Amino acid sequence: MMAEVKILYFAGLREALGCPGERLALPAGVDTVGALRTHLAARGERWAALDAGRNVRAAVNQRMAAADTPLDGADEVAFFPPVTGG
Amino acid sequence: MTVSVQEADFDVGAELAALSAGRRDVGALASFVGLVRDDGGADGVSAMTLEHYPGMTEAALQEIVDEAAQRWTLLAVRVIHRHGRLLPGERIVFVGVAAAHRGESFAACEFIMDYLKTRAPFWKYEEGAQGGRWVDARDSDGSAAARWEQGWDEVEGRR
């Protein structure tokens, strides 16, 4: 059975993609943050905002994550631009 | 050691007073207040909207405070970060640190701000004369946070 994750997009990335988030059944082989990002970017057009060359950060289950962070046990994955608070 | 993420403004004096209220062991209170700034450029900044990641934001701030408390002996810490639409001159963030001595309070306050700038999920959207734009992260914020990995805490915080 494919695992379903909640994906969230924030700030300028949310605007570029035109949606705040989605639910996605992870396809076979999409088992890391980097693989999920590649999978989403491959949708083309506005999803190019997630292309490898773009400055995008990620979190898994609300903790900062890296490209090689596994999605095993992930309920919520977020993609966003570098943070600018403070 | 409490953090708050809120739309409402805060009272700097009351927050500072609360950090040492009823205690006899606090010898130093350091604080930082960040404000919305109109940079005075041609476009100007007429307003700023802070977006955040509810849930993760609070956890990320708490983690930063916990890490500061591991590095220095701190008696009390308070972090407040606002979100929503703010005008130039309005307060965005408060960090207050109570310690026995000034070295620990200054260093921990700066550490918390440096880490907040690179690890807490907030994003600024500026409105100006030419419209709105998302603020880009600055390289200097990354290097400010990175210096704490290089033993600067030994130099700055433990004199």
From TrEMBL, chain A:
Record-linked InterPro entries: Beta-grasp_dom_sf (IPR012675), MOCS2A (IPR044672), Mopterin_synth/thiamin_S_b (IPR016155), ThiS/MoaD-like (IPR003749)
A GO CC term assigned to this protein in UniProt: molybdopterin adenylyltransferase complex
Domain of life: Bacteria
Stored SUPFAM superfamilies: MoaD/ThiS
CDD domains documented for this protein: Ubl_MoaD
GO biological process: Mo-molybdopterin cofactor biosynthetic process
Keywords on record: Nucleotide-binding
A molecular function (GO) term: nucleotide binding
Pfam families in UniProt: ThiS (PF02597)
Family, per entry: Belongs to the MoaD family.
Protein's name in the database: Molybdopterin synthase sulfur carrier subunit
Organism encoding this protein: Pseudothauera lacus
Chain's gene name: moaD
From TrEMBL, chain B:
EC number assigned by the record: 2.8.1.12
Pfam families: MoaE
Pathway: Cofactor biosynthesis; molybdopterin biosynthesis
Keywords noted in UniProt: Molybdenum cofactor biosynthesis, Transferase
Source domain of life: Bacteria
Reaction equation(s) it catalyzes: 2 [molybdopterin-synthase sulfur-carrier protein]-C-terminal-Gly-aminoethanethioate + cyclic pyranopterin phosphate + H2O = molybdopterin + 2 [molybdopterin-synthase sulfur-carrier protein]-C-terminal Gly-Gly + 2 H(+)
Single Gene Ontology BP annotation: Mo-molybdopterin cofactor biosynthetic process
Molecular function in Gene Ontology: molybdopterin synthase activity
SUPFAM superfamilies: Molybdopterin synthase subunit MoaE
Subunit note: Heterotetramer of 2 MoaD subunits and 2 MoaE subunits. Also stable as homodimer. The enzyme changes between these two forms during catalysis.
Family: Belongs to the MoaE family.
The protein's name: Molybdopterin synthase catalytic subunit
Lineage of the organism: Bacteria, Pseudomonadati, Pseudomonadota, Betaproteobacteria, Rhodocyclales
